[in-house]
Amino acid sequence: GAVVSQHPSWVICKSGTSVKIECRSLDFQATTMFWYRQFPKQSLMLMATSNEGSKATYEQGVEKDKFLINHASLTLSTLTVTSAHPEDSSFYICSARSGTVNTEAFFGQGTRLTVV
Amino acid sequence: DQQVKQNSPSLSVQEGRISILNCDYTNSMFDYFLWYKKYPAEGPTFLISISSIKDKNEDGRFTVFLNKSAKHLSLHIVPSQPGDSAVYFCAARWSGGGADGLTFGKGTHLIIQP
User: Fold this and answer.
1) Which sign does the torsion angle of CA B13, A43, B42, A85 carry?
2) Which of A73-90 are b and which e, b meaning 16 or more Cβ less than 10 Å from the residue's Cβ?
3) Which of A17, A26, A114, B13 has its CA 20 to 30 A from that of B95?
4) Which helix (H) or strand (E) holds A93?
5) pLDDT score of A2
6) CA-to-CA distance for B55 and A52, rounded, in angstroms?
7) Higher-pLDDT residue of A32, B110
8) What is the distance between the alpha carbons of residues A105 and B81, in angstroms, rounded to a whole number?
């Protein structure tokens, strides 16, 4: 399958700082990228959907001003967690898809964020 | 409100036997279903999918069955191998939903015993 690379794989930051997570599609152009969050022993929860060159669509309950998503090119999307708090500590995973809705989406390896 | 439910948090199966993982959904608008395999601290890996117009899809050792009337799908792995030990997530999507990300179940931890 296609390769989606997520960086960093883990990060520790202090409360109040911002953290940027990158998601890259390495061998295909991703028209749509998705950001998920997973708490321990829970399912992956969709946070937002972004299409290249347009604003992200956030799921209900996700603060768009806190979780800034930029999808500036067909191979790169970034998620910035602003003013991080300990409750933002989680596993963040991106996925990327080319083409239409029923084209398969491929996942990055995830980023473990710990806010201290 | 869990729209995709995997009611078994874990499942233990002997190597060589069949593993059957179950998934139920409540949203009748879902029209595409997927199974992912996930190891700790890694992203999910796609296994197999099925469109709502089908009732079965097979790929090697993996077969997914869909029962639309019961809003139920299952993943069969046969024969089970030690490398199959992982958490398996069922996911669903509604093509006409606009924001078309996946809705995941909570996962089932499959343990293959030698």
Assistant:
1) negative
2) ebbbbbbebeebeeebbb
3) A26
4) strand A90-97
5) 72
6) 34
7) B110
8) 26
Q: Do B107 and A43 touch (CB under 8 A)?
A: yes
Across the interface, of B43, B89, B99, the residue whose CB is closest to A57 is: B99
Which amino acid, residue A71? H
Tell me if residue A88 falls in helix, strand or coil: helix
Interface of B with A in 39-98 (CB under 8 A): 41-46, 49, 51, 89, 93, 95, 98
pLDDT in tens, B69-88: 999 999 999 999 999 999 99
Kindly state the percentage of chain B with pLDDT values over 70: 95
The pLDDT assigned to B99 comes to 53
Note whether B1 contacts A: Cβ–Cβ < 8 A: no
In the predicted model, what is the mean pLDDT of residues A46-73? 90
d(CA B36, CA B89): 5
| Phi, then psi, of A73 in degrees rounded to 5 | -140, 175
Do A103 and B93 touch, CB atoms closer than 8 A?
Answer: no
Task: Check: CB of residue A88 under 8 Å from CB of residue A34.
Answer: no
> How would residue A101 be classed by pLDDT, with cut points 50, 70 and 90?
low
Polymer length in residues for chain A = 116
